[in-house]
Amino acid sequence: MAAAVELEGVNVTFGDFVAVKEANLTIEPGEFFSFLGPSGCGKTTLLRTISGFIEPTRGQVRIGGADMKGIGPNKRPTALIFQNLALFPMMTVAENIGYGLRVRGVPRHERDEKVKNLLIQVALAEHGHKKVSELSGGQKQRVAIARALAVEPSVLLLDEPLSALDLKLRQHMRSELRAIQKRVGITFIYITHDQGEALTMSDRIAVMNAGVIEQVGDGRAVYAEPRTPFVASFVGENNQIRGRITARDGAMATLETPLGTLAGRNPVALDVGQEALLFVRPEVMQLRANGTTAGFEGEALDVAYEGSVTHVTLRVRTGQKVMASLGANALAALPTPGETLRIGFRPEDALLLARPERH
Amino acid sequence: MSGSLAFVFGLPLAVVVFFFALAAYERRTGVASGGGFFQRNGLAIGLYLVLAVGFWAFFIILLPQLAMVDMSFRPKLPPSQMGGPKDLYTLENYRYFLFGSTTSTAEWNWLHIKAFFLTIGVSIVITLINFAICYPLAFHMAQSATAARLRVLLLLLILPYWVNEILRAFAFRVLLSSGGIINQMLMGSGLTDEPIDFLGADVGLYMGLSYAYLLMMIFPLYNAIESLDKNQVEAARDLGAPWWHIHAFIVLPHAKPGIASGCTLVFMLTAGALAAPLVLGGPRTLWFTPIVYDRFYQAFNWPQGAAYAFILLVSCIIFVLVVLKAFRLSLGEITR
């Protein structure tokens, strides 16, 4: 079976501006795939390239194995859900959902039947005759999904469709989207800047920065095994400490930092003498006994007690802020701001990555 | 005379009192949200606004029209007999339009009736032509032109209207006359041996009329299409719609108020145009407005002219309202 979407050396430039640079990617049929990145990273451009609104400057987009060059968005087996949904305000809910079928010349009774089924599927059976403006935010969302599904696309593209909703509804829609995807079984390509959305819904995530796909992997991989400093710092909270590699020992390495000699895993095989960044997540930080030499000291600036976990922001010797999320068992008493704490981490919980040239 | 003086000063006063009463009513019933009209604007400015609007509405708009309506129902009399025993309300001016005589109803006044329907019919055609010309341009300006391109287009659209209407009409006449540039070019290139009588065939008239009110069509259309979310066009395309389907079912329904407003303006103005029909009308074409003009200044029959003008106005209003109704638009919507 051919891949749902393949990108091969896709470049998109607008004048001098490179929006997407050398994107190579294979998205499997039935996959829930997310592009995650900050705004302006090129993820929307890439989505519009897949849907056909933008032709790649260089490279090839294949959908279901077929080259999409010169094929317009109205001829591609994709359907796009817009950030603002772009429902047609002068049509009823049912007419909105049936629009794609009407364009395709599907006979009326067949169209009505299908629209009815879709309305039931998205739990809007009673709302078919209503104007779009009479619906709530979540209902509009479901109309947009039904309208896109009506044309039976092989790939559904979603451009941050949840960003306009309030938090409660957003969380509810996450599981609903996931459930719909499981039910219809087609490929979903989802664009978001919200890592929570990407991590909870996706089978795989492509993390993008400045037009470049930095890493592709499942949620655990991009969170626990980031391969670039951008991914390490963008996905989840992370502390980074600069240093220079002084020794290698199998999969581990030690580095010299202003905070002392620290060690971590070395997955990208950095060599002795190389500039490196050490990434340590707040939740792997541990308290160390005062007076020992393990770890490093810092002054507690801010203490946020959350019950099961306490978030402490420390200012270390270099002036840098380091975050530590300490479990309830780790603390005998809550630290007070101004108190000096000694914290450390197990080397296998820290990660070494090459320091980018310009930083 | 003292009666009319009291009218002139009493009317604005009545308006002011009316507005005060309205404001007081609003305050008491709590219909008004926020401060009242005079609280918001202050007494001086509020009073000025009410007076100015009242004066404008009554003296510039309503009163002259009422005077014309009144006049249209009176017989033509020498000044000495005005207000005398013979100055009675009569339908003879309207009768003249239909039957060509103030007394007999034996024969229809085909000349004037034909001119009337020609004017209405051609105005409809001109309105449609204008729409056909302006819609693609307005769509381009509103949806796909860059900011720089838009500025250039707007300038190109507005600048030609600095030339006044009479001059423009005569320029068309010169251009299209049998010795004009177009005929010279046609004959020079051997396409025809004889000059083509563009003016006699009313080509000039249609060109002049179409051109005269182009802006009245393009700006309402532009405004309406500009407010359409680009994503809607893209969504329709993404769902598989060909371009004509997008225009017919997404853009046009959205732009309906703008289309109605543009078409109404162009139709009304074209039906009432005077310069272009006078200068560019062919010898065999009798437009209605020159007839009205003739009633006033050739026949010196002002009551009859008033009746003719009033017939045109009322017919146009009725026609527009019927068309709006047919397209399920309310009058309020076209101002959006």
UniProtKB/TrEMBL annotation, chain A:
It holds the Pfam family ABC_tran. Residues 5-235 form the ABC transporter domain. One of its GO terms (molecular function) is ATP binding. InterPro entries: AAA+_ATPase, ABC_SmlMolc_Importer, ABC_transporter-like_ATP-bd, ABC_transporter-like_CS, Mo/tungstate-bd_C_term_dom, P-loop_NTPase, Transp-assoc_OB_typ2. The keyword Cell membrane does not apply. Keywords: ATP-binding, Nucleotide-binding, Transport. Belongs to the ABC transporter superfamily. This is Spermidine/putrescine transport system ATP-binding protein. It comes from Ancylobacter vacuolatus. The lineage of its organism: Bacteria, Pseudomonadati, Pseudomonadota, Alphaproteobacteria, Hyphomicrobiales.
TrEMBL record, chain B:
The keyword rRNA processing does not apply. Residues 116-323 form the ABC transmembrane type-1 domain. The chain crosses the membrane at residues 5-25, 45-67, 115-138, 144-163, 203-222, 259-280, 306-327. Keywords: Cell membrane, Membrane, Transmembrane, Transmembrane helix, Transport. The keyword Membrane applies. It is a multi-pass membrane protein. Pfam families: BPD_transp_1. It is found in: Cell membrane. Its main location: membrane. Belongs to the binding-protein-dependent transport system permease family. CysTW subfamily. This is Spermidine/putrescine transport system permease protein. The lineage of its organism: Bacteria, Pseudomonadati, Pseudomonadota, Alphaproteobacteria, Hyphomicrobiales.
